[in-house]
Every structure is written in C-alpha cells, then in structure tokens.
Design brief:
homodimer; alpha/beta; Rossmann fold; 7 helices
C-alpha cells in the first residue's frame, strides 16, 4: 500500500489517496486523535470518483465521532479494468428494471462475481489500514453493496458491527449467508427505492442471525436517505466500536 | 383539572398527579426550564399504575431533552369504571391469539370504542395542560395505542409529530385514516411482537400520508424495545418540537 496524495480538509481531517497494488482507495483520519481511531469501511456501489461527494460527507460524519474511514474502488469499476461479463449483466439489469423485477439469474450474474472479487480486496485493505499508526480496531462496515457487507461480516472476524444499505438486489444464495451474520446490525432501507425490491429487503433483514439488528426505513428513492441517518449511524457505531 | 399529588424526583423533575374530571393523569415537567417546555403525550395501553415504571422512564428521557410529558388513564382501564363490552372483547382477543390471528371483528370491537372515547379525552387534557404555566407547544404524541395516535394526529392540529408504537392490532378502517396523517412520524416495530401482526404493521407504515416517516424495527417481543430507542425518540422530537 502506498499513498498517492494527501490533503487536509478544512475541519482538520487528513484525506489520503492510496493504492493497494492496482486498487485505488481513500483514507480519512480525524484531525485530532489521542488514541488509535476505530475504522469504518465505507461501502459503495463502485466508482470512487462519482461517489466522492457522498463518501467524503460520510467520512466527515465519522470523523466528528472520532472514527477513521476508508473506501477502496470496487472491481471492474471507476478507473479499474472493466469486465465484459459484469458490464453485460449491468445492462441486462437495467433492461429488466424497465419492465419489472429482474430475474434471479441476472442478479446472480451481476452481484456474485463482485462479491467474490471484492471481499478479499477489502480484507487485504483492512490488513494494510490496521497496520498504519493512528488506526486501531474495532472495525465497522457501512453502506452498500449489501451483499459485500453480508459476506464480509460472515468471513472477516475483525468486523464488529455493520450498517448495511439495503439498496441493491440480493442473490438468493446470500439469504443463507445472512443467517450466519451475528454482529450488531443497522439496516437502512429506502421505502420506494427504484433499484431495489422492498419485500426482498425485508426478507434479508428477517434472515440475519444477529441478536441486535435494527431496521431504519425512510421514505423516498435510492438516493434520498435523510441527513439524520448520518447521526443515527454515528450513534450505532459509537455503541459498538468504542 | 386539579392536581392531586406532587413530588420532586431525584433529578429535579416535578411529577404531579392530576384529575381531569374523573380521569386520572400524571404530568412531568423538567427541573430547570427557561422557556415553556414542549409537551409530549405519552401513549400507553391502559393501566397508569401498572405502566408507571415505564412511563416515568420515558418521562425522564423526555425531561433530559427539556420536554414536559403527560399521560392520562385510558377509558375502562386502571381505576376507571370497566366496560363489560371492552372486557369481553379483550378476553376474545386473548382466546383468538392462542389459536392464531384475531378476526377483524374482534379487533374492531376492542379498539374502535377505545379510540372513540379516548381521543376527545386526550384533546381535553391538552387544553388543560397547555393552559398551565411552563408548558408550551408544540406537542408530540409518543407510544401506543397506535390507533389512538393515528386518530389524534388526524383530528388534533396541535400534534406536530408522533412516535407511534406499532404494538397492537389495527382495525381495517384505521388504514384509511392513516393516509390522512401528514405530521412527521417515527414508527417503532418489535419484529417478533407476540401481540401484533408484523405484516399489518408494515402495511400501516406504508399507508401513512406523511412525507417524513421512519420505521425503526428491532428484534424481540412486545416489551423488548431496546434502550437506545429512547435516545432516538428524543432526537426525533428535538428535530420537530424545538
């Protein structure tokens, strides 16, 4: 892992671009920290550059609570090499959404390869990030893709709590994996998400094995998560990462 | 309205018993308040004496945020005269729950008379409470019975926000009323509530006409609402009553 850029944001947060092999990433650390900061991995749908404004807003929220935050680019997204197969599945999903709910086959073909590829990359990023001075455990995962969050919560023992954004279609096989999740969860659902299926999101929530799980459902579409959920996320992580 | 008792709780909160005609009630006001305190009406399933420990805990939460809180006894509950019809409906509900979901007829027979009788009483209490020095608007409703909260939010313009506990069966006719609710809502649902129907609770949530509505669903049964929902309630009311 090597740093590729560095800047101070106006509220003292240090923002550093990095490369983990050929995977780009961004790390935000709070301006003043006496002890190593807990780390929140910021999940997103791919495209660090496009997602930057929303990611930095979430990183600022996290820093206000004393948390470091980091994101890496997803496979076949942003500046990383494309995949013909995944691009094809994404186009198929778009076409299917115009006429109704996409088939399980399309969802599997789009999501499962990303999960398979992304989860080991997030774990490698975790190895590198936790080795830095000023970053400690415990670690939270926050955001989408929900299937990546599910797999990470199952296979990565360093994840202590997860705030999952139910804003993407979930392959059927992930429902079984959801039963194996035991860390505290907060699940965000946009009630009228145009790119998601409400019933299936409620089914995933029901499936999770965690004893502490809370669903926060709000009105509006995919991008309409209300600002106060940023505060609620901080309180959730403050309960579990401190 | 006349006060029947008065005591200071250890954190400076003033607790006063009152009688509104023959309806008993309790009012809690914060120890130190510079301006008139917003008021939260604490909804409950009936039985002020039995509910007291939970009500006073919620009143303490509210007072910590500068809110006054009040509860009145429900019709045909606690020390108030009983109703043979409502007692009969309650017994029918208990029997029906032992074998499955109660019929709409039983739910109507139990809930609708209570709503019809209780809502004018809550409004009369509001008249009396808002006339007291130290109590101002705006007003919130917090708790169950959800059907009482729905009717109050529809007919009482002084209710500015409501936190509704989806912990009781809802008559079908209340779904239409729910569409008329427009104040900001936070709806609490216990995912495995033994005295409620999850699907129907989600349907009510869907029906509300409010532009801002948030569902908080947590694991566990009817009485298992986690402590952190007290904090979340305060933040909801702080957004809307201040």
């Amino acid at each position: 892992m090597r740093f590729t850029s560095e800047q101070r944001l106006d509220d003292g947060i240090l923002e550093r671009g990095f490369a983990l092999g050929d995977i780009p990433g961004i790390l935000w650390t709070p301006g003043s920290a006496s002890a190593p900061a807990p780390l929140i991995l910021l999940g997103h749908p791919g495209g660090l550059h496009t997602m930057y404004p929303r990611l930095v807003a979430r990183a600022r929220d996290a820093a206000a609570e004393g948390f470091a935050a980091a994101a890496i680019e997803l496979p076949w997204s942003g500046e990383r090499p494309r995949s013909v197969a995944v691009d094809g599945a994404r186009a198929d999903l778009r076409r299917a959404l115009q006429v109704g709910r996409p088939s399980d086959e399309i969802v599997d073909r789009l999501v499962l390869p990303v999960v398979e590829q992304a989860v080991p990359e997030w774990r490698a990023a975790l190895d590198a990030l936790l080795a830095l001075p000023g970053i400690g455990g415990p670690v939270g995962y926050s955001g989408g893709v929900i299937s990546i969050g599910i797999r990470l919560a199952v296979v990565e023992p360093r994840i202590s709590a997860a705030l999952l954004f139910a804003g993407s279609f979930v392959p059927r096989s992930m429902f079984e994996e959801a039963r194996k999740v035991t860390v505290p969860l907060q699940v965000l659902l946009q009630w009228d998400d145009e790119g998601n299926d409400r019933r299936s999101a409620l089914e995933v929530f029901d499936a999770f094995g965690s004893r502490e799980k809370t669903l926060h459902a709000n009105m509006g579409g995919h991008a309409g998560v209300p600002w106060f959920e940023g505060e609620a996320a901080n309180r959730f992580f403050a309960r579990h990462l401190k």
